[in-house]
Amino acid sequence: MPEVKCAVSNCAYWGQGNNCRADIIMIEVDEHADADLSSEFAGEEFDTRHKDQAADRANTCCHTFKEKK
Q: Would 4 disulfide with which of 12, 20, 41, 55, CB 3.0-4.6 Å?
């Protein structure tokens, strides 16, 4: 798995040195940002039936985020 950096320290998958510790990373274009995925994300399947193109990185979002409790 590639090294994934993340500065969102209130995510349950955030690790020391700004490392993401999730088993699976789901990144989506903003167009689908409000999709109701209704599940915890790391280690589970995602909707991979569609392909999108982002104009730039500002048009993307991480669906893997899970707030640290």
A: 20
